[in-house]
Amino acid sequence: MNIKITKNIKEANLITHDNKFHPDDVFSTVFLSKYIEKPCLCRVGVGKVENAPEKAIIYDVGFGKFDHHGPDAKKRPNTNLKYCSFGLLWNEFGLDYLKNNNYEYKEELFTAIEETLVKQIDGIDNGIFPEIKAEYELLDLDKIIDMFNPTWEEKIDTDIYFEKALQTAEIIFDNVIKNEYSKIKATKKVLEKISEVKDNILILDEYLPYQHAIFTSSNPLAKEIKIIILPSNRGGYCIKPRTINEDTKDLLINFPKEYRGLHDEELANISGIKTAKFVHSSGFLGSTETLEDAILLAQKALQNKE
């Protein structure tokens, strides 16, 4: 990663707090290291932002424009969620960063990254955690970054571990952008194919994430979609019943019960579809070798009244 960490505040163009670090200051540093030229960071004690260069960006410390610890901390519009420093920085520079890196659909990508990553860190750093009802402890982003802090037994300069946290956070940051950008481009392609929907079946020419496009499309044909056919990464074709909505795995329709869990010859014999390869036991996925047979298997699911 392209960043220098210094103890001399006068040579720094990035300044944040020292000692224990969190997702906020870590991801803020990752983002700024990609946004400004020749990033040089100084981590200082709280209340010790003195002699800082005039053009330095100071964040998560010092009660300035990009700190959120003062009484006048900004809230996101129409919510009770306060910005953290990363949120403030992304709001200020994020769109410009995407423009400088020649991304298409900049506004959509800006919002997608905000929803996927930035708001989570806003909440975490302002003490708002989601309720997880599960019989295990979730290893969330806050805990992952916290694992890079020295243990109570280690008497070590935290800058060393801060650098390690930056390396991991950079991978997460880069992959969030890559994945969200890919989703947006896929959505554009799926929206075009929705205009070709026939007999409740959406057929895609390539393996694409399609859920978001289906449930946000204004095309009336989107509401008619009950099953999706698309090429499989393993060869052949996938046949996937639509879910009831974007946020559930509950299916709108399903394959006949007697097909579920069957493979190859056994499935081909009971269904009468020559190249039928597989139907998952829960019914969320079927597969065939040919497109023609994929359409036949989709029709079996559409005709199923169970």
Your description of this structure?
There is one protein chain. The chain is of the alpha/beta class. Helix content is 39%, strand content 11%. The protein contains eight helices and nine strands. It has helices at 23-35, 85-100, 106-125, 141-146, 158-194, 211-216, 264-271, 291-303; strands spanning 4-6, 14-17, 40-44, 57-58, 201-203, 227-231, 237-241, 276-279, 286-288. The strands form two sheets. A five-stranded mixed beta sheet has the order 5-6-7-9-8. The chain has a four-stranded parallel beta sheet with strand order 1-3-2-4, covered by helices on one side. Strand 5, helix 6 (211-216) and strand 6 (227-231) form a beta-alpha-beta unit. 31% of the residues are buried. The mean pLDDT is 95.
Summarize the structure.
The chain is of the alpha/beta class. The chain is built from 8 helices and 9 strands.
Low-confidence stretches: none
Helix content: 25-40%
Strand order of the largest sheet: 5-6-7-9-8
The run of helices and strands is EEHEEHHHHEHEEHEEH
Outline the biggest β-sheet: 5 strands, mixed
Strand content: 5-15%
Attribute tags:
four-stranded parallel sheet; five-stranded mixed sheet; alpha/beta; 306 residues; 8 helices
Task: Lay out the secondary structure.
Layout: E1 4-6, E2 14-17, H1 23-35, E3 40-44, E4 57-58, H2 85-100, H3 106-125, H4 141-146, H5 158-194, E5 201-203, H6 211-216, E6 227-231, E7 237-241, H7 264-271, E8 276-279, E9 286-288, H8 291-303
Parallel strand pairs: 1-3, 2-3, 2-4, 5-6
Antiparallel strand pairs: 6-7, 7-9, 8-9
Helix pairs in contact: 1-2, 1-5, 2-3, 3-5
